[in-house]
Amino acid sequence: MKFEIEIWFGDLDAYGHVNNAVFARFLETARVKFFRERFGKVEPTFVLRRIEIDFISPMFLGETAVVEMGVGEIGNTSWEFVYTIREKKTGREVLRARTIQVWVDLKENKKIPIPDGVKKVLEAEKVSP
């Protein structure tokens, strides 16, 4: 999956570049977009267990982030999303990231197996490491 996000003034920190927390929001946007496009909605059926971000170069006001996301490893109750963000005009790599999501039973507050239909979609979106 691939989409663009324009950098606005509100995305910047005191140093004039995109704040690290804003990049975490871009990754969240990718996860929500993934589920909306494939299932028509996002229900609270998974939680974020881990987030790792390697910041490679800064982004600035007026630039456009190209966010690419795919599926990494898939387990019984959890899966990995992998991300790359590049600057649109130059192709400069800005960051690499990964998140681990866990499918949960919200009533019991415990992890449960990923439903078969969801797992099939995840497997179809799997990318090479």
Automatic annotation (TrEMBL):
CDD domains listed in its UniProt record: 4HBT (cd00586)
Chain segments annotated as coiled-coil in the UniProt record: none
Transmembrane segments: none
Single GO MF annotation: fatty acyl-CoA hydrolase activity
Superkingdom of origin: Archaea
Protein name: 4-hydroxybenzoyl-CoA thioesterase
